[in-house]
Here is the input.
Amino acid sequence: MKLRIEVQELDTPRKVVFNKIMQSYGAGCFPQKTEDIGEFYRVPIGVHFPSSVIDQKTNTERIFTFHFNNVGEFLVKKRSLKIESRPSQSFILNSIREKRKDVRDTVEKDLIKIIGNPKLGVRFDVLKYAHLGVQPIYRTITKLLETRGKYPPRSEVESIGYTDLVRLIIDIGYVEYNEEQRLTPTNKLKDLFAQSNGDALRTAESIIGLVLAEHYDYLYQTRRIIHFVPYVRASTAYYTEALQFGGLIHLTETRLLESVQKYYKVAARPSRKARFGHATLIRELLDANILCSEDNFITGRADILDGLMHIREDMPMSEPPYSSTAE
Amino acid sequence: MPTNSIKRYLKSLNIPLNARLEHMSNSHQLLNLLNVDVPIIVFYNQDFYLKGEKGIGHAAVVVDKTEETFVTVDAAFYPKCVHQIPKKVFEEAWEMEQKSAIIISPKSIKFSRVKIPSRTIPMYSHDGVT
Here is the structure.
C-alpha cells in the first residue's frame, strides 16, 4: 500500500533544530530565539525538566517541571541549513545540573542565615562533628564569659594562631579590642548571655550560629573547615524538597540520603562508614532542632520553611495539571 | 522519548513495523492515516490546551476522530485515558510543537512525502524581477 502525506519542508533553522531535538533529545527540549551570526544561525535550546517530590507519610507525589533556558546551542549553516554543531546529551545534563545547583545554593545560603538566628533556638552544641572546626570560637566566647575582668591582650590572642576565627566574632560585633588592646565582650554579647540565662555554653552556640550565618562561605571555601558541610547538605536537601512541594514533607532516612545525592552529586552508594555516619548525622540534626521527627519520618520545622518560602516564587518551575497523585 | 530511541526499540523487538518522525502540514494528514487504521503519536502543547499558556510538549496517541474532535489515548488523564480533544484547540497546541507526529506503521505501507515549504513561492513582480 502506498500512502501520500504532506509534510512541512525543514526550511527554517528553527524547524531544522526542532526536528533534530525530537529525533535525539526528546520533547523536553525546545529551540529558543534564533540569532544570525555571519555564516551560521545560532539556536540556543531550553529544557523542561521534570522533578518529583514524594511525601512518604501520605504517599502523595507531586511532579514539577523546571524550565531552564540556554542549556546548549546549535549552529546551523546558513546556506545549506545543515547542522554544523550540536550539544551532546551529557553537556545538556551538566548544564541542567549547574542550573539546579543555583537553586540549591540559594536555599543553602538562606537556610544558614535562618538557622543562625538565636531566636530559633537551634542547638549547635549537639552537632558534634561540626564542632571540630570551630572550637576556637567556642573557647573564646566561653573564656570571655567565664573569666570576667581577665580579658586576654591582643598579643596573646594573635599568638594562638586562630586570629582569623576571632576576627569573625569581632566582625559580627560580639567581641572587640578595648582601649588597652584587650579582647572584651561587647554589650551585644552581654545581652545575648543574659537572654541565655547566664549560660555561657548556650551563648557560645548562638555565636557559632551567627558566625555560620554570616561567614559560612569563608569557613567552608577559604578556610576549608568542612565539618559543618554534611549537616548543611542534609538540611538543604530536605528543605529544597519541601520548598518544591510547597509544605513540610515526611521522608525516611534512606530517602533523605537519596535527596542529598540528588542535590550534591555525591557518590550514589556511599561507603559503609559514610552510611553509618548518615544515621548519626540525621539524629544530631533532629536533636539540634533543625529537622524534626514525626511517626518515624523525618520532617522539618514550619518556621524555617516559612523563612524560605520567598525562594519558591522565583523558582523557574511549574506544576502540570496531572501532578498530584496518591500512590 | 527521542524518536531515535523508539526506532531502536522497535528494531530490537524484531517485528515488521517502521517508525518515522514527521512534521505534518495540516491535520488532514492525520485523518488520512486514521482512515487506513494507523494510529499516530502526536506532540502537542498540553499546557496550552489545558491552561492556555505555553509549556512543555506532550505526547498522546490519536486513535480515532469524530466530526468535532480527535480521540486520543493519553496517560496524563489516568484513569480516564481515552480523551477527546476539540480539533480547533488541538491544532493550535499541535502547531506549537511544529505539528510533530511519530508514525508507527507496518512495513508494507510505503509513504510518498510531499514537502510543503513554509513560505509561498515568491511571485514575479511587474518588472519581472523576483
Summary: The radius of gyration of chain B is 17 Å. The longest strand of chain B covers residues 57-65. Residues 69 and 87 of chain B are 5 Å apart (CA to CA). The mean pLDDT of chain B is 86.
